[in-house]
């Protein structure tokens, strides 16, 4: 079931330059949310922002009945969201889309994120750990300033990082991580699957690695999603079954469903 509600902002944080973390709550209990689902936010007071903005659900704090949104400030709409304060309300359509594959007891899952694509992986790590699975995080950014919420990720699994400038972790992209190297004990038996979210070139590189090594892999696409309901056709993606709306059929897809040349 989908809801359209005015949620109350109970926390506003700025984890790094160019990002804002909004913590939202409701008078009623928030509905069940699958990791990888997203929201569509109505931006008030921004004349040039006509459409809602799709934002991944970063984390669900069940105990405090909160939903967290990690937002990168890239335009007038998102910058307007960064001006909100505790006590303000935000009109949100949620939860939308289909999320990541649910984990099973003892299963190893590598969660790979790049840039703000790390956002949905925090709650996925929480949900995996709660069901007895074993999440490991591989997070990449341009520099250490783009690696956010690392202490939160460490609550749910081991964290490996890469930066393009070498300021933290291995230098290069996530596929350059020593975690994925031939000598890595983690990948030795290939007894894990990959879930990935981030810029498309990064996801395609991870998908190529997974395919070459016969490792199951799913990716969360970040196509522009104006309505979130499959009505406007802004987010169409070509798949082996034909064109589909990412907001309705995804955003998470098994790489075997996509027509990427990997």
Word description of this protein:
With 262 residues, the chain is of the alpha/beta class. The chain folds into three domains: 94 residues, Translation factors (Elongation Factor Tu (Ef-tu), domain 3); 112 residues, 3-Layer(aba) Sandwich (Rossmann fold), CATH 3.40.50.80; 42 residues, Ribbon (Dihydroorotate dehydrogenase B (pyrk subunit), domain 3), CATH 2.10.240.10. 15% of the residues lie in helices and 33% in strands. It has five helices and 16 strands. Strands 4-3-7-1-2-6-5 form a seven-stranded antiparallel sheet. A seven-stranded mixed sheet has the order 11-10-9-8-12-13-16, with helices on both faces. It has a two-stranded antiparallel ribbon with strand order 14-15. Strand 5 and strand 6 form a beta hairpin. It starts with a strand and ends in an 8-residue tail after the last strand. The model has no long low-confidence stretch (mean pLDDT 95).
Helix count from the secondary structure assignment: 5
Cα-based radius of gyration, to the nearest Å? 18 Å
State the share of residues found in helices, binned by percent.
10-25%
Which percent range describes the beta-strand content?
25-35%
Average pLDDT reading: 95
Number of extended strands: 16
The 3D shape can be described as globular
Defining traits:
262 residues, alpha/beta, Elongation Factor Tu (Ef-tu), domain 3, Rossmann fold, Dihydroorotate dehydrogenase B (pyrk subunit), domain 3, 33% strand
What is the compact description of this entry?
Helices cover 15% and strands 33% of the residues.
